[in-house]
């Protein structure tokens, strides 16, 4: 594509679509005029820890400008094209990222009985962490523990002294978060001891559960139907977003999900093949406007 980045990196989550839609909404607001001003938040450092939303909240800019409601929209391949999700209550999970290093005793791969293999221990740890979600948290609400990166060793015939894994832990209820983190810690250190290793665990808190304001969600549903969209009122995702930091402490929040396709035909978010259709910009813009109109209807006089 002529507009593609020339680097070897991509995020593949649709944030370029979201920003293009936000620019369109702001340009339209300037052109036609709006009853209450719009403050554009460009979501700095959304994918890092600590996220940029914390800086925005700490700056005091939201109460300074009288911001009563914050509206967001995110493209979503798991929802059919032409459908927008507007769900009250929790819609995105909390997330905490972690790094765990198991220290053992490395050496020759042909003499494993003389060693303390951290790769074997780490492999068991990855499997054991899945039980955190299935056996420690109410399955009605669930939890997700995923390992996205593993580092260990440099040669096929040498067992290293240490092995490291990087992952994320997600829950849909804030009250489950502390329990899940305690269980994560127990599993990490217990597994290390079982294999004669020691563990070093670092946890980086990222996002809280994202809770949509019920009045905003209900109002947006009406405006979305008026604009010709089908509305989904059930969709929830174990994805996480620093938008969650805007939802609370005097500011109402609403995150909408704009459908791109279906589960069979559209690559997932964070897939290297992810490429939203151009029409998604218009649809995200319409969703943002629906949220804005809902905020006007339900704002304090």
Describe this structure in words.
With 301 residues, the chain is an alpha+beta fold. The protein has 2 domains: 15-92 and 210-298, 3-Layer(aba) Sandwich (Aminopeptidase), CATH 3.40.630; 94-207, Alpha-Beta Plaits (2-Layer Sandwich). The chain has helices at 15-32, 52-59, 61-64, 118-135, 177-194, 214-226, 279-298, and strands at residues 69-76, 83-85, 89-92, 94-103, 107-108, 143-152, 158-159, 162-171, 198-207, 210-212, 230-232, 252-259. The strands form 4 sheets. The protein has a 4-stranded mixed β-sheet with strand order 1-12-2-11. It has a 4-stranded antiparallel β-sheet with strand order 6-8-4-9, with helices on one face.
Largest sheet: 4 strands, mixed
Q: Any idea what the CATH architecture of the largest domain is?
A: 3-Layer(aba) Sandwich
Q: What coarse outline follows from CA principal-axis ratios? A: elongated
Distance between the termini: 49 Å
CATH topology of the largest domain: Aminopeptidase
SSE pattern: HHHEEEEEHEEEHEEHEEH
Bin the helical content: 25-40%
Average pLDDT for all residues = 91
CATH homologous superfamily descriptor of the largest domain: Zn peptidases
Structural class comes to: alpha+beta
Gyration radius, rounded = 22 Å
Number of domains: 2
Strand order of the largest sheet: 1-12-2-11
Task: Tell me what portion of residues adopts beta-strand conformation.
Answer: 15-25%
Quickly count the helices. Answer: 7
Weakly predicted, low-confidence segments: none
